[in-house]
């Protein structure tokens, strides 16, 4: 049951002010309050902005069944496993469930005699055939799991096949069932038996050519289509098309260097030459109206991998990301898909949980398989009780309850009662990663002590391995335990505030839930391959004396998203504004003598030229036209951008620009003539053009602008 609460008592006054201001500023059109508090891609004006979810969602695969869309995503070592989402419009999604409550395939899955960090279940393929939903997903070292159900909500039956890497399944129209897999050419294409419980012996096809991994296999208009991603961060996605499953396959680059402005380094540390993190793994789907779209993934630093919704254009028989005139690139903001459904903005993830319903918020996941005898929502009604289990440290602790943190900033707060702790117990709020960090209470014979543990300097080790000390670390890289007050109140609040623009997290605590005091230095969050996930806020309780210990009661978990809606969503419609280049600070300006749009160097005294003021005229669907002080309109020509006298006529396509907001207040203007962007030549004042194909990751290429209201 989803628990939605608004302004909890345990949020500090400063946070309340930030959230209230953001919600008020971002809700001029009556957007539901939850959509103002929590990230939703829907802008409420007929457009959407990426990411689709501003939190991790890995390895997306998507299908349409009638008028409904279903999305499956990786869950790795978390339980329940294989996340399933539903949508009617491709923009607003809701969680409908998981394929399996517990991925219990041996002791390591239970954090007993090992772990499956960074492994577990991954890269699902979701399909629907003759009234049944199917999900295929591999488990490292265990095999290919085949789930089936008449309902997307389950219950799901399961059988297991020999493992296949990054597979995809196609139910062909002649009754055959093909499965493609692998990470290198030639890619095997095998046949599955009709009952999906074995492979057809001796039958093998293959796809030859440079593709990648993370396959998505389709049959579209009689053609076989395989989409796959080159492994890595700044990498592209490929597509292969053939008339026959035996080939020959023709291969094209489907995405090329599209970062959507996502940086490789933490955004506030990005350098001008930052290549960014590119869109490179996802499936495609059509709408009843004939449009094609992709839900596709890219890395987002310590927050983990996120997905974007981008249009697909068919070109010369290949489905390519992007719009005509600007293929293999994608707009960060675009018109919502034509699905026949007009839905109001609705966040996919509301993370709060007061533990009153008798069920956990379904967005919680356990780190590895939990011991159900050691947690309860009924022993103390209205609270989550965690009994401690033996563990040498947090990384090996069972029954740690996790969620994904929201970006670009989120503030997680939990209330806890430690009066049931015994000697050797440690309990609190953590960020699960490698390295990890946590704030909590430790119980010893001398009493209780508030502590911060920061394991920076502990190397990630191999994928799925236990973190190990880094080789010859500097003395300052392995942080000593930061000690807080001795014998803190048994009833207290813990908090972690994550900023993914800086990759920094600040832990703090409060005795009364009003004023919070930081403990220790900010923790540097990282993305690594040990857990193969972004950081995860976690509630934990373990005992270091090699025996079961006491209990702790957790209550009122809240997640604040100060920037869920703010300047990133604002379009200054009806305002007179000034636009400056993010690359060199130059002004966009009207050259009234030559009727051209130019950029001019910034004045050393900061003065704004009169010709650099433009009225933003609303054209609907997030589109604008810019009107100069002398009544002319900015108009995109073939080789230049001119100022045009419309003589009372309405602005046309040449005068229409899609207003595109990136995060952190950067703005782009996409011309509807060629779906490219208004741009300056960096450090070279002169005529403007509409030739830019997209933003650079650091936004220093002349296509990204800052705006402010003209005085």
What brief labels describe this structure?
711 residues; mainly beta; Tachylectin-2, Chain A; Jelly Rolls; Trefoil (Acidic Fibroblast Growth Factor, subunit A); 9-stranded mixed beta sheet; 8-stranded antiparallel beta sheet; 55 strands; 3% helix; globular
Report what the structure shows.
- With 711 residues, this protein is mostly beta strands.
- It has 2 helices and 55 strands.
- The protein folds into 3 domains: 39-335, Tachylectin-2, Chain A (5 Propeller); 365-560, Sandwich (Jelly Rolls), CATH 2.60.120; 576-709, Trefoil (Acidic Fibroblast Growth Factor, subunit A) (Trefoil).
- Helix content is 3%, strand content 42%.
- The strands form 13 sheets. Strands 4, 25, 28, 29, 31, 32, 33, 36 and 41 form a 9-stranded mixed sheet that branches.
- Strand 8 (132-139) and strand 9 form a beta hairpin.
- The relative contact order is 0.13.
């Amino acid at each position: 049951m989803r628990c939605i609460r608004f302004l909890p008592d345990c949020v500090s006054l400063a946070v309340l002010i930030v959230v209230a201001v953001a919600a008020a500023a971002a809700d001029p059109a009556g957007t539901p309050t939850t959509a103002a508090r929590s990230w939703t891609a829907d802008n409420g004006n007929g457009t959407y902005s990426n990411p689709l979810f501003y939190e991790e969602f890995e390895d997306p695969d998507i299908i349409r069944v009638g008028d409904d869309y279903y999305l499956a995503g990786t869950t790795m070592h978390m339980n329940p496993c294989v996340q399933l989402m539903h949508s009617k419009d491709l923009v607003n999604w809701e969680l409908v469930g998981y394929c399996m409550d517990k991925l219990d395939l041996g002791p390591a899955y239970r954090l007993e005699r090992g772990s499956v960090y960074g492994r577990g279940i991954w890269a699902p393929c979701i399909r629907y055939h003759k009234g049944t939903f199917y999900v295929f997903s591999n488990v490292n070292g265990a095999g290919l799991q085949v789930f089936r159900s008449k309902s997307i909500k389950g219950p799901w039956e399961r059988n297991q096949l020999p493992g296949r890497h990054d597979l995809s399944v196609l139910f062909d129209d002649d009754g055959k069932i093909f499965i493609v897999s692998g990470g290198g050419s030639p890619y095997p294409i095998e046949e599955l038996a009709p009952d999906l419980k074995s492979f057809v012996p001796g039958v093998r096809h293959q796809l030859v050519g440079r593709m990648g991994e993370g396959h998505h296999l389709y049959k579209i208009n009689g053609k076989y289509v395989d989409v796959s991603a080159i492994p890595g961060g700044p990498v592209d996605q490929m597509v292969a098309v053939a008339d026959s499953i035996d080939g020959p396959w023709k291969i094209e680059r489907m995405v090329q260097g599209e970062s959507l402005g996502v940086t490789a380094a933490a955004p506030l540390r990005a350098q001008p030459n930052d290549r960014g993190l590119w869109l490179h793994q996802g499936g495609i789907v059509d709408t009843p109206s004939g449009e094609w779209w992709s839900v596709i993934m890219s890395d987002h630093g310590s927050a983990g991998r996120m997905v974007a919704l981008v249009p697909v254009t068919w070109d010369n028989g290949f489905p390519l990301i992007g719009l005509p005139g600007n293929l293999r690139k994608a707009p960060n903001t675009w018109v919502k898909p034509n699905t026949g459904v007009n839905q109001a903005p609705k966040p996919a993830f509301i993370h709060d949980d007061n533990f009153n319903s008798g069920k956990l918020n379904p967005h919680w996941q356990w780190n590895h398989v939990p011991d159900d005898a050691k947690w309860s929502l009924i022993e103390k009604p209205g609270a989550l009780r965690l009994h401690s289990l033996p563990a040498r440290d947090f990384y090996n602790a069972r029954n740690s309850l996790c969620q994904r943190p929201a970006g670009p900033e989120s503030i997680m707060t939990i209330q806890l009662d430690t009066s049931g702790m015994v000697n050797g117990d440690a309990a609190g709020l953590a960020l699960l990663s490698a390295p990890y960090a946590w704030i909590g209470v430790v119980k010893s014979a001398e009493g209780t002590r508030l502590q911060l543990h920061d394991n920076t300097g502990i190397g990630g080790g191999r994928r799925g391995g236990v973190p190990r000390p880094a080789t010859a670390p500097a003395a300052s890289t392995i942080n000593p335990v930061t000690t807080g007050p001795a014998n803190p109140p048994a009833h207290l609040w813990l908090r972690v505030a994550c900023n993914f623009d800086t990759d920094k997290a600040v832990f703090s605590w409060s005795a009364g839930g009003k004023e919070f005091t930081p403990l220790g230095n900010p923790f540097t969050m990282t993305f690594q391959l040990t857990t193969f996930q972004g950081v995860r806020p976690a509630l934990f309780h373990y005992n270091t004396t090699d025996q079961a210990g006491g209990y702790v009661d957790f209550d009122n978990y809240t997640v604040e998203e100060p920037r869920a809606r703010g300047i990133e969503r604002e379009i200054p419609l009806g305002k007179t504004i000034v636009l400056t280049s993010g690359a060199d600070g130059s002004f966009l300006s009207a050259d009234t003598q030559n009727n051209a749009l130019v950029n001019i160097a910034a004045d050393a005294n900061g003065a704004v030229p009169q010709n650099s003021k433009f009225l933003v005229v609303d054209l609907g669907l997030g589109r604008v036209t810019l009107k100069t002080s002398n009544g002319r309109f900015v108009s995109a020509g073939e080789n230049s951008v001119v100022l045009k006298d419309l003589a009372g006529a309405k602005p046309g396509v040449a005068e229409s620009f899609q207003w595109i907001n990136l995060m952190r207040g950067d703005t782009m203007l996409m011309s509807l003539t060629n779906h490219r962007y208004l741009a300056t030549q960096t450090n070279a004042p002169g005529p403007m053009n509409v030739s830019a194909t997209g933003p650079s990751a650091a936004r220093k290429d002349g296509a990204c602008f800052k705006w402010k209201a003209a005085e």
